[in-house]
Amino acid sequence: MRVSRLMLITLRDAPAEADIISHQLLIRGGFIRRVTGGIYAYMPLLWKVLKKINLIVEEELESKGCLQALLPQLQPSDIWERSGRWKSYTEGEGIMFSLKDRQGKELGLGPTHEEVITQIISETIHSYKQLPINIFQIQTKFRDEIRPRFGLMRSREFIMKDAYSFHANENDLKSTYLDMKNAYENIFKKCGLDFVAVDADSGAIGGAASQEFMVTADSGEDLILISSDGKYAANQEKAVSIIDKGKLLDVNKSSIIETPNQRTIEDLCEKNNFYPSQIVKVLIYIATSDDNIKYPLLISIRGDQEVNQIKLSNELSHQLKKNILEIRPVNNEDLKSQDISNIPIGFIGPDLSDNLLSNAKTWENKFIRYTDISVKTLHSFVCGSNEINKHRLLINWDLINTRQTFCDIRKAKAGDKCINNEKQSLQECRGIEIGHIFQLGTKYSSSLCATFTNEKGKEDPFWMGCYGIGISRLAQAAVEQNHDDSGIIWPITIAPFEVIIIIANIKNSIQRNLAEELYKKLLKNGIDVLLDDRDERAGLKFKDSDLIGIPFRIVAGRESDSGFFEWHDRKTKVTETLDETSVLRKISEELNTEKT
RNA sequence: CGGGGCGUGGCGCAGCUUGGUAGCGCGGGUGCUUUGGGAGCACUAGGUCGCAGGUUCGAAUCCUGUCGCCCCGACCA
Predict the structure, then answer these.
(1) CATH architecture, range A3-73+110-240+428-479
(2) What's the pLDDT at A594?
(3) Do domains A3-73+110-240+428-479 and A255-407 have the same CATH topology?
(4) Nearest of A386, A496, A388 to residue A48 by alpha carbon
(5) The Cα angle at residue A510 between residues A507 and A515, in degrees rounded to 5
(6) How far apart, in whole angstroms, are the C-alpha atoms of residue A300 and residue A404?
(7) Domain A255-407, architecture per CATH
(8) pTM of the model
(9) Could you give the C-alpha distances from A395 to A251, A255, A346, A391, A392, in angstroms and in order?
(10) In chain A, where the domains are located
(11) A162-182 pLDDT, tens digit each
(12) How large a percentage of chain A has pLDDT more than 90?
């Protein structure tokens, strides 16, 4: 390809809309154009990158025996209703774009394809003898994100590779899951990325085991906790840890203490010489289930710890056997609107009476009580007395005379000890999620009645797995991880071009001829080469080639009279003077070492 | 959804407080010079100042509404 025909439009200044470096560089280099909020056009240069990523993905998955297909983007609402996700996806999180056709039939633009593929498989696959099946597509997905941002990182229309596997039993699912994990590691390695696989919450998709693949970058939206030896890594949403015991409270008799106006943990500690770890903090949350029932929750947790809302939501969903649309701390307006007035805020104990809810207009009249296990091990502790200006010192949890569910709803954080090895402590870093693999189990197949006949002639629901890679996000993550002050430094395997030849002065026929000759030879050898044949000053062409991040640059310039080129490595910035034969040898060396 | 900020030529911005009919840099076009790190000079094209109302003799500027974009938060007793 010649730059003169490439529609290369580079910008000197980054548009104000771009905040993080990868977003700025992609716009400045002419890789993407914003069409509207969270919706981008992939311009020719980026499309080349995306195709290279796709190819790496396709080759790797095909080598694992996966089948490629292309599923519809427009999907009927009824299959989503059967899986129980229509409401939570259109009304709850509101993440699915939906519309009506001229007959008034409801359709959704696919944010994911479990429903469609499960229906197809259930219609076509009937016997255990036809299993396992692992089928994938690379497809545009639509999600009406709450807040699209950072360009391709969180956009409303994006390219995703999604794969779905179907199995006759759990063991077979597990073995494919491991296979896919291995495939993902190979894929991301080939794309030249630094990444880490972490334990993850399975979120709205549901299911059992799940891991995310994170590209480590400070601008990442996820917080990851990793043990110092790297053997434990988890998304904070999922992470479990061991907290240190903290300062123990040394009392041997329960009592009530006066704590005038001491509503916060800080106040309480300051005025009475307590430590936060000696206090049981009690919080009220309100949860809305997908049948629109509002459940007040009473949460108890050690005073120096924080609630992990994801864990809490999962726990509640599990207990109620319902999807939870929303979960959040209550505020004063909530209480007012429910006509609940006499909650002793700041002095609540885990045994706060349900009677306080008797007036509630639309809420359930009973608290669902969860207590984090961090509290159970406290021998004695401070907590609210349910009476204004008074707290209690209690020497035994059993003195709290209400039914509690004890569970882990605590947010793990850096500095906590690792559950696998108490000697290791957790460290935090940020990551960009580029891949996610799930063992779904039989959740979708059961709700959609997708079954096969097993060896004994009985109908069983399929065991399912699903596996995603954010292709367009991956491309931007690669930029986030590989750039310098001058621009992008694409990993060779996914660079839009492998090599760029720059003719320093297009009016110099010696330079021009030398470059054209080399260009033809490289094309013949199957090298993905770009020729900058523009009638521009050399400096501008250097700037452009740095900005768009082509890994290797060959200049026909000063040394052309004696038949030499200048070879420049974008990443190492090493420059050499080479004749044509050496250039050809150099290229094949560089490209081969990268590809293997 | 809440809070904050911003909409002026393709991009980055000034002008707005104190109303008088739009300017700078980059980019585009033409010509000459220049030619290895975003060239110089000259000429030139390009803007219903997001949109709709209102106030006024007169609105980019003041008021109201509306649309769009960006950022922060979705967080504790």
Answers:
(1) 2-Layer Sandwich (3.30)
(2) 65
(3) no
(4) A496
(5) 90
(6) 9
(7) Alpha-Beta Complex (3.90)
(8) 0.90
(9) 7, 9, 21, 13, 10
(10) 3-73+110-240+428-479, 255-407, 497-595
(11) 999 999 999 999 999 999 999
(12) 58
CA distances from A232 to A418, A420, A427 (A): 7, 7, 10
- A96 CA to B52 C1' in angstroms comes to 32
Strand B contact residues in chain A (289-328), C-beta within 7 Å: 306-307, 309, 328
Residue A531: burial class (beta carbons within 10 Å; 0-12, 13-18, 19+): buried
User: How far apart (Å, rounded) are the C-alpha atoms in residues A515 and A323?
Assistant: 63
Tokens 């596996």 identify what position? A467
CA of A95 to C1' of B51 (A): 29
User: What is the topology classification, in CATH, of domain A497-595?
Assistant: Rossmann fold (3.40.50)
**Amino acid A34 CA to nucleotide B18 C1' distance, rounded Å:** 39
Per-residue pLDDT tens for A259-308?
Answer: 988 888 888 888 888 988 899 999 999 888 878 888 999 999 998 888 89
With cut-offs at 50, 70 and 90, classify the pLDDT of residue A93: low
- Scan residues 512-541 of chain A and list those with Cβ within 7 Å of strand B: 537-540
Q: Answer yes or no: is pLDDT of A595 > 60.
A: no
Q: Could you say which residues 118-147 of protein chain A have a Cβ atom less than 7 A away from any atom in strand B? A: 146-147
> Which of the nucleotides lies closest to A556 (Cα–C1')?
B36
Band the pLDDT of A94: cuts 50, 70, 90: confident
Q: CA–C1' distance A5–B7 (Å)?
A: 34
pLDDT confidence of residue A49:
97
Strand A157-167, strand A106-109: pairing: unpaired
Taking the CA of residue A479 and the C1' sugar atom of nucleotide B27, their distance in angstroms comes to 25
Judge whether residue A542 contacts strand B, using its CB and a 7 Å cut-off. yes
In whole angstroms, B26 C1' to A2 CA is: 25
Q: CB–CB of A561/A505 below 8 Å?
A: no
User: pLDDT at residue A204 above 60?
Assistant: no
